[in-house]
Design a protein that fits this description.
By secondary structure, the chain is an alpha/beta fold. Helices cover 31% and strands 25% of the residues. It has 2 domains: 7-171, 3-Layer(aba) Sandwich (Rossmann fold), CATH 3.40.50.300; 189-306, K homology (KH) domain (GMP Synthetase, Chain A, domain 3, 2-Layer Sandwich), CATH 3.30.300.
Length: 316
């Protein structure tokens, strides 16, 4: 039996690409799990993370941005985001501070009108506007939908995020802890590692390339010993993790750009990714990167599945 005073439930973050969903989720759980970049459609899969404190447990689902799909990967991303709306206790709809409500936002509003789940409108990036303007943005959105709450935040600066978490717990039902208190994500390490490599490629590569890349972890093995701390009984790994990964791209010309002159770009991506992977795994990492061309992989169900996207044979 669970404590009747403990609240728990599932909260999804939705919104158009690049509104800051992953940045907000990372901030709320206090650790980087979802990758972020300045380019849209960075998140491709539904990413589940867990926040636990004395109030209870929140399971956050960060979804791909809802956008007009141009290929099977895009269709998969949109279907993941829209399907999640029916699986949760609360919806956080993130928008940017603006009085203009475009077709993308209106499409999301139409989706939200079909569900009975409480919707909290989160106006993100308030650090980019003056405080005097915020009420104007709230007024612009307040009649778009019957929102449970409207709250302005800055995911990047952490502004008003404690208040957002309080509101989330206000609306969550009472229930059991779904995960152990120490759990932060249900994502396999290999998937997080692949995403961290893709994040660095997104950050350093030219504008047209990132949408056409995927990362495959070919090998992940340990060299060293695992021991237990006699005082804390925590497992300690003293050694090196060897990771062999392949960056998949769609064109031969892209392969050359990813590798760079004398391998400089690939080395830059690898060095930056290795530092974050070492922080994640808390040990030394030997990262080896390769680049392969797989033409039109974003329109191949077989290759999409191969690169970790759980697509159906027919995307809805």
């Amino acid at each position: 039996m669970y404590d009747k005073q403990i609240k728990s439930g599932f909260v999804t973050l939705i919104g158009r690409p690049n509104v800051g969903k992953s940045t907000l989720m990372n901030h709320l759980i206090g650790q980087k799990i979802a990758i972020t970049s300045g380019k849209p459609q960075t998140t491709r899969n539904k990413i589940q993370t867990v926040f636990t404190d004395e109030r209870g447990q929140v399971i956050f689902l960060d979804t791909p941005g809802i956008h007009k799909a141009k290929n099977k990967l895009g269709q998969y991303m949109v279907s993941v985001a829209e399907r999640t709306l029916k699986e949760v206790d609360i919806v956080l709809w993130l928008v940017e501070p603006s009085t203009f409500i475009g077709a993308g936002e209106r499409h999301i509003a139409e989706q939200l009108r079909t569900i009975k789940t409480p919707v909290i409108l989160v106006i993100n990036k308030i650090d980019t506007v003056s405080k005097n303007e915020i009420l104007t943005f709230i007024n612009a959105y307040k009649d778009v939908l019957n929102f449970a709450e409207i709250i302005p935040v800055s995911a990047l600066k952490g502004e008003n995020t404690d208040q957002l978490m309080k509101i989330i717990f206000d609306y969550l039902p009472y229930g059991p802890l779904y995960y152990d208190e120490d759990t932060i994500t249900d994502q396999p390490e290999r998937q997080i590692v692949a995403e961290l490599i893709r994040e660095k490629a997104l950050r350093f590569l030219e504008e047209e390339i990132p949408h056409g890349i995927a990362v495959s972890i070919d090998q992940m093995s340990e060299r060293g010993n695992r021991e237990y701390d006699v005082n804390t009984l925590e497992e300690i790994f003293s050694g090196i993790i060897d990771i062999h990964a392949t960056i998949i791209c769609e064109r031969d010309s892209h392969k050359g750009i990813i590798i760079g002159k004398g391998g400089a770009m690939l080395k830059k991506i690898g060095t930056s990714a290795r530092k974050e992977i070492e922080n994640l795994l808390d040990c030394q990492v030997n990262l080896q990167l390769w680049v392969k061309v797989k033409k039109d992989w974003r329109d191949s169900n077989f290759l999409l599945k191969n690169y970790g996207y759980n697509v159906q044979d027919k995307v809805d």
